[in-house]
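Late entry, written up from scratch paper. The run itself happened at the end of the previous shift, but nothing got recorded in the book at the time, so transcribing now.
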Amino acid sequence: MPTFVEGHLNGAGMRLAIIVARFNSIVTDRLLAGALDALKRYGVGDDDILVVRVPGSLEIPVVARQLATSGSYDAVICLGAVVRGATPHFDYVAAGAANGIAASALEAGRPVIFGVLTCDTMEQALDRAGGKAGNKGFDAAVTAIEMVNVMRALS
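Output as recorded:
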């Protein structure tokens, strides 16, 4: 019989950092509220959460790298919203944020969770920040808790 490793959703005792972009704050503030709600529901104490605000999604990776490699946090949750416009700017920002966040996780060997929305319209973004498509900030926080527990089980 194979051995299975799965994370559980108990966040008690975890230290977590959340990085949230201010750009498109009508969306990112809702993502942050969802993430904080999830962390509270699953037992993470207020004193064990650091929230860092950065100007935009492209600024998230450098802060994620610093927090993830510091050894002070079990996971880093990255929240932002990039909405397509009439220029290729969307493609550069979305790819830069995604690649940088992934690189931060690999370098640190810790969960760095991608909670950056990349949407075609503001309506889609709002739907994913507490509207009819749920709250992806909440989902990112749940993923962080599960991944910390997976990593702990593997060590």
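Residues 89-108 form the longest helix (20 residues).
(Scratch paper discarded after transcription.)
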